[in-house]
Amino acid sequence: MPKTKNALTRLLAIDQCLHDQSRHYGLRELRDACNDALSLKDSEGVSMRTIQNDLEYMRSDNGYAADIEEYWIDRRKYFKYRDPHFTIAGFPSIVRSMAYCSSCLAWCRVSRGMR
């Protein structure tokens, strides 16, 4: 399956990390969180460049216009939301995508006789 098919899973994993203000998340930590989320779906891991592209998408007006702060600790760059209450999970596009996926899964189960 192409990596772009897992974009929603990656974005939600990154969102969860950036929302957590108690830890510091750099590119490595964000990649590890995404790879952990993707491993639950039996998908291959992603590169650092993919994480960078996802962060840029989240910041863009075409994405979620997220105000992501970059800060440095001991020569390492970390990321977090400026507003600790911000999350992309409640955006209408995410809710629609999740509802669409749920309905597709329900249809697959019915058509294959699964429950």
Walk me through what this model shows.
It is a single chain. This protein is mainly alpha-helical and 115 residues long. It has a single domain, classed as Winged helix-like DNA-binding domain superfamily/Winged helix DNA-binding domain (Arc Repressor Mutant, subunit A, Orthogonal Bundle). It is built from four helices and two strands. The longest helix has 21 residues, at 92-112. It is globular, with a radius of gyration of 16 Å.
Provide a compact summary of the structure:
The chain is mainly α. 51% of the residues lie in helices and 10% in strands.
Helix proportion = 40-55%
Listing every helix as H and every strand as E from the N terminus to the C terminus, the arrangement reads HHHEEH
> How many whole angstroms does the radius of gyration measure?
16 Å
The overall number of domains is: 1
CATH class assignment: Mainly Alpha
Unreliable segments (pLDDT under 50, ≥5 consecutive)?
none
> Approximately what portion of the residues adopt beta-strand conformation?
5-15%
Mean pLDDT: 85
Number of strands: 2
What would CATH call the architecture? Answer: Orthogonal Bundle
Tell me about the largest β-sheet.
2 strands, antiparallel
Could you give the topology of this structure?
Blueprint: H1 7-19, H2 27-39, H3 48-59, E1 68-73, E2 76-81, H4 92-112
Antiparallel strand pairs: 1-2
